[in-house]
Amino acid sequence: MPREVLAALNGWLDTIGETDPESRAEYIEACAADPEQLRHAIRVADALAAGG
Question: What would the DSSP string read from start to end of 1-49?
Fold first, then answer.
């Protein structure tokens, strides 16, 4: 997974207050395994970065 995408996903997890390392890893692994989930996660992270 590109570093920029990983940073966006981690930023989203930080924003929602997810601090459990295992949960964070599971979420990132799920995104890496499912292209549709990854697209959705990137859209959400981009919207967050844009202030929405």
Answer: --HHHHHHHHHHHHHTT---HHHHHHHHHHHHH-HHHHHHHHHHHHHHH
Domain boundaries, the chain: 3-49
> Rounded distance, CA 32 to CA 17, Å?
21
Q: pLDDT tens digit string along 25-48?
A: 999 999 999 999 999 998 988 888
Distance CA(35)–CA(17), nearest Å, equals 24
pTM of structure: 0.81
